[in-house]
Design goal:
- The structure is a single chain.
- The chain is built from six helices and 19 strands.
- The protein has 371 residues and is mainly beta.
- The chain folds into two domains: 226 residues; 131 residues, no CATH class.
């Protein structure tokens, strides 16, 4: 596959997700779609009819790309192994909508900003197998390339430019059938410099229902198949626990289930305190310890701050070592990185047998893990 196709593929598999949001909302009434209402402009007779936006087409961008919570969308794909995917909304706050998209190759975190006249993808991060609220922790690179996904006015002929691409609304009443249903949609045509095109189809109160890429005879399609209500995002966590003889660490494979707007920190706190009823053996925190903040910073260092109970553990040198590295190894595995900056109430860890300097980090300890 050439570089041009790979560049498109990243674009193709990123934007389609969020847009697919509204099958779970009320369906449009038949009178709105089958019997268009005659437009009568009696508000301002001086208006130039050629410059007036068609009032039959809903100009609320959020209707065409709704923001729903606790749902999962699933697409079938043809033409490429990455064309089939699913996605889940992680955070729906203020003007930002963060989702996680999963295909057979990776999990991508994306943020869409809802502006007055456009919906813009402002962030995209591959290999994101964890959950962080990227808008909240401020780890979005300044050089991130934004992409306008949908632009006002919603009418045929509206155009805008992307990174080497031209976007145009080419239809507002295109009927398309996908596995989920038959929809009347907006058609957005994206033209690339090499002559290839992508067409995206958005249904009112549903979002993206289909996306079709064509480059000569090479065609890749993603089409909406199902939407699951009251859904959770399931994230696997490998928890490192001391064995019965305290000679090494065993691994317990667990899952945390997160609703939209749930911070992973809370679910991990429950899991690592032995409070998750499905995994009572994962109690690796000293009693009473709370995880006060937890995130992966822009240098790919895990920053975790715990309450004072973590330092006040009643353990000897071996016990203290296990408490520390059970946590360090678990968080390292969760985030997919080696370095952990451990602080207690905002200060470097200072225990009976280990004292860390300001800014000193701990690394994943493979030697303590049982073969």
């Amino acid at each position: 596959m050439n570089k041009r196709t790979m560049k498109w593929l990243s674009l193709f598999l990123s934007v389609g997700i969020l847009s697919s949001c509204g099958l779970l909302q009320n369906e449009p009434e038949e009178t709105e779609t089958d019997q268009p209402t005659e437009i009568v402009d009696d508000v301002n007779e001086d208006n130039d009819s050629d410059e007036t936006v068609d009032s039959e087409i809903n100009q609320d961008l959020a209707v065409w790309m709704p923001r729903l919570d606790n749902v999962s969308y699933h697409y079938v794909g043809t033409g490429n192994e990455y064309a089939a995917y699913s996605w889940y909304p992680q955070f729906n706050q203020d003007d930002f909508y963060q989702i996680a998209r999963n295909n057979s190759g990776t999990t991508v975190a994306e943020i869409y900003e809802y502006r007055a006249d456009a919906i813009v993808r402002t962030f995209q991060n591959e290999e994101t197998y964890y959950r962080d609220n990227f808008s909240e922790i401020g780890t979005i690179p300044a050089d991130t390339i934004e992409e306008t996904v949908l632009q006002l006015p919603i009418e045929v002929g509206t155009t805008w430019e992307g990174d080497g691409t031209d976007f145009e609304i080419t239809a507002v009443d295109h009927e398309i059938t996908v596995p989920a249903d038959t929809y009347t949609t907006l058609e957005i045509t994206i033209a690339y410099e090499d002559g290839a095109t992508t067409k995206r189809y958005y249904a009112e109160n549903v979002g993206l229902v289909a996306e079709i890429y064509e480059d000569g005879e090479f065609v890749v399609e993603s089409k909406l198949e199902t939407i699951e209500e009251n859904s959770t995002e399931v994230i696997p966590v490998s928890v490192y626990v001391a064995d019965e003889q305290a000679m090494g660490m065993d691994v317990v494979d667990a899952d945390v289930q997160l609703m939209t707007n749930d911070p992973a920190r809370v679910a991990l706190q429950e899991l690592l305190s032995g409070q998750n009823p499905d995994y009572p053996e994962t109690n690796i925190l000293p009693e009473g310890t709370e995880i006060q903040y937890l995130f992966l910073n822009s240098d790919r260092v895990i920053e975790v701050d715990v309450s004072e109970e973590f330092e006040n553990m009643n353990a000897g040198s071996t016990g203290e070592l296990f408490f520390i590295y059970n946590l360090v190894n678990t968080l390292s595995q969760y985030y997919g990185t080696d370095e952990v900056l451990l602080t207690v109430e905002g200060e470097p860890y200072s225990g009976a047998h280990m004292i860390l300097k300001d800014g000193e980090t701990l690394n994943f300890n493979q030697e303590m893990v049982n073969e």
